[in-house]
Amino acid sequence: MSQLLLSARRLTKRFGGLAAVNEVSVDLVRDRIHAVIGPNGAGKSTLTNLLSGDLAPTSGSITLNGVETAGHSPEAISRLGLGRSYQKTNIFLPFTVWDNVRLAAQSRERHAPWNPLRWLQSAASLASVNQRCERAIELAGLAHRAKTVAATISHGEQRQLEVAMTLATEPTVLLLDEPLAGMGQAEAERMVALLLRLKPDHAMMLVEHDMDAVFALADQLTVMVNGQVIASGTPAQVRSDPAVQAAYLGDGHA
Amino acid sequence: MSTAKAQLEQLPRAMQVLLALGALALAAFPLVPLEAADFYLQMLTQMMILAIFAMSLDLLQGVSGMVSLGHAAYFGLAGYALAFLTPADAPIPLWWSLPLAAAGAGLAALVIGFFVVRTHGIYFIMVTMAFAQMVFFLFFDNKALGGSDGLYVNFRPDASALGIDLENKTQFYYLTLALLLGIYLFLRRLLFSPFGRALAGIRVNEHRMRAVGYGSFGHKLTAFTLAGTLAGVAGYLWAAQTGFVNPELMGFHMSAHAIMMVILGGMGNFAGAIVGAFAFEYVMHVFKDLPAIGGFDTGKHWQLWMGAFIVLVVLVAPRGLLGLGEKLLKRRGRASE
Amino acid sequence: MDFANFLIQLLNSLQYGLLLFMLAAGLTLIFGIMGVVNLAHGSFYMLGAYLAWALAARFGNLPLAIVVGSALAVGFGWLLEWLLFRHFYHRDHLDQVLLTFGLIYIFEEMRSILWGDDVHAVAVPEAVSGSIALTDNLSYPVYRLVVSAVCIALALGLYGLISRTRLGMKIRAGAFNREMTEALGINIRLIHGVVFALGVALAAIAGMVAAPLSSVYPGMGSSVLIMCFVVVVIGGIGSVRGALVAALLVGLVDTFGKVLLPQIAGMAVYMLMAAVLLYKPEGLFKQ
Q1: Mind giving me the DSSP string for C81-133?
Q2: Is A92 close to B216, i.e. CB distance below 8 A?
């Protein structure tokens, strides 16, 4: 079984004259966490959007689980086994935690929307969906909050819900956009523990600003500045790279 | 588009009881001996037909979050279908003409929906309106399709296969009531089905739905087509009852009325659509029948009061009558603790 | 079709398109900058036309009526924004749709109470009531050219205002990023009031100048509203340039469609809109 699950080659995205992402290549391997770091405006979000299908690249290729996906729709890419969590919490606020995750889990049922069977079943009674949902909620540590409305849970719990929804579709590749954003110490530790639990079964890309977490988690590190990769390698290699020290890890940037 | 509202989907127990009582009252109404019974029977039948129309729009607007300003196009098309299908000398059977007319409306919705569903927010509102106007002008400008005068439905459909005589106002009433209840139960079932839950998710956060793998275009187009089909059922009944169709049935005002009914009652649970249809028609009749006050023909200018009433509802009760009712029940529940 | 006829239809297209532009520009600005959808926009056109008729009857002079009417329209727009619309910028589109429905009813009745429900003709001013001869037996009414000229002048004025003045810069800034504009100390409420009043005035003036051409009748608001929406959809919301291009396009398609293919005359414009939507669901010039 191949361990290289997602391979992006020379991805470029231009907006008018500006290249937000410029010839970026990234490999995501199972049981490895690949962190992407860089200052604000470096193009990390754009890169994530290119991989998830929210944006189509101007040039370059993306191969996900053996399929070429550059320019495909987000739903098609999700069905090929990619899960993505968002920096700005992107959940269904009026629904309960359970319903949030259940909806994500339900996406894997293969019936077309115009199939009348889908209009007459009870959504809450789909056993496989419920199982998937329960598993994802357990993993994310939110079982005790399942019946609570998402708008009323704490910020940290909402970030956990973000991840639970991403897991409910049972992806093989995970793109996590600042999962630790806005978290306190205890919550962040829980999230890091969760990410480590997920590692063996997934190829993970992590966009983060929390450097402690990055160096604790990452097997592979890519540094982006102004849309380009200025260094890529193990954390130790990247740390000692003079270009990186000058551009990013040096004075002023945390 | 707009901020996703939490809809009132599960109605409080007290409200369910009230609605059940309302249904019973509707069922019992023809049995009450009344002066001018025929008039009231017809009026209530019309209200029920509009309630079906409103429910079909609620599927689109309340559940899926798609505000269509052109929903009447499908209502009118099915009515016209009945007019065209009915020959000059004999009625046609209901059992195939109703499904056919509704399917025709659904097909129109599918075709128009294909263009329209790819747009969002304000664009969607505008293009639905524009396409409905296109249908309106198609009929208005063409004598062959009846022109601005419209067409007569020569005979009420023949429902003898069901053992019903549609010329009998009471039997027509009960047929309409049966369809109203049947469609209501179907839509309630749909609301909590996988499809219905997906539509609700698309309403609340379409972006995330796509990110977890739902094809939102397919879902929305299906909802649009189904809503058009159900509107067609209502339109067919309207034409059968009034015996007459004209382009106004597909016009802007008809679509606008439907939206207002759904909002007035409360969106997203289909019961609100029914309540809203009845309330809207009732209020309109009240305003139209207002006596003149000191020489000012209050009733003639009913649109002024209607307009003000609508503005008031928007400002004061954005979740409609059922939303208000839910708030009141909650407050009473809290007070009694 | 010979050349003279072609020229006549072309000039008609231009004039119709420019009138539509006046309406669409206001609508697209109001939506682009304040995020408000206003279904009552056609009512301003209708009210303008009736106002022109009433004032022209009183003054015996249409140009004066238009000037006075414009001032009244600006005031009315300002008042409407201040009293009502500004409370709806943050509301659901659905609430806005409903509010403006209610307003359509109210405006219809207002007109009915003030001026009745009859259709009226408005006389073309003497000075421009002649025709320009194009061939031996075909001529073109001067007034139509005047209408086009007025619309072009206003369009240029709008362009100048938005691109060349400080006010215009603030308007564009407000459209781009409202919070930032406010943080910079620019009075965003004032901007909104100005934009709204401008939109109302443009629609009303369009109604006023068009009155002698189309006569003044109760349904004129709704028929022009649909076309206006089609223009905004084709052009792209928020884009005045898009509104201009789309309005001229609609003018051409509608006018020539009616002449060349009368059976599908009413539908030609919608087919254009459908075609645009297939390729650019957000309009040709979407910001």
Answers
A1: HHHTGGGGTTS-HHHHHHHHHHHHHHHHHHHHHHH-S--B--PPPGGG--EEE
A2: no
What order do you get walking across the sheet with A220-225 strand by strand? A82-85, A173-177, A203-207, A32-37, A220-225, A228-233
Residues B23 and B275: beta-carbon distance below 8 Å: no
Q: What's the count of helices (H) and strands (E) in chain C, helices before strands?
A: 11, 2
> Best mutation site among C277, C279, C285 for testing chain B: the one with the most B CBs within 10 Å?
C277
Residues of B in contact with C109 (CB under 8 A): 301, 303-304, 307
Domains of chain A: 1-81+171-254 (3.40.50.300), 91-167 (no CATH)
Residues B321/B261, Cβ–Cβ less than 8 Å: no
Mean pLDDT along residues C108-123: 86
What are B116-169's pLDDT values in tens digits?
999 888 889 888 988 998 899 889 888 889 988 999 999 999 998 888 999 999
Question: What is the ipTM, given to two decimal places?
Answer: 0.92
**Contacts B311 to C, Cβ<8 Å:** 98-99, 102-103, 106
Question: What pLDDT, on a 0 to 100 scale, did the predictor assign at position B272?
Answer: 94
> Which H/E stretch holds residue A161?
helix A155-168
Neighbours of C5 (CB within 10 A): 13
Sign of CA dihedral A157, A163, A169, A170: negative
Name the residue facing B138 among C98, C110, C267 (closest C-beta): C267
Q: Which tokens in the block code for residue C27?
A: 């609508």
Task: Report how far residue B26's alpha carbon sits from residue C108's, in angstroms, rounded to the nearest whole number.
Answer: 36
Q: Are the Cβ atoms of B130 and C101 closer than 8 angstroms?
A: no
Residue B67 is predicted with a pLDDT of 92
DSSP structure class, residue C196: H
Residues of chain A with pLDDT under 70: 1-2, 248-254
Q: Which of C93, C103, C274 is the closest to B115 by Cβ?
A: C274
Angle at A27 between CA A21 and CA A30, to 5 degrees: 140
The answer to whether the CB atoms of A74 and B211 lie below 8 A apart is yes
Task: Report the Cα A186 to chain-centroid distance in Å.
Answer: 21
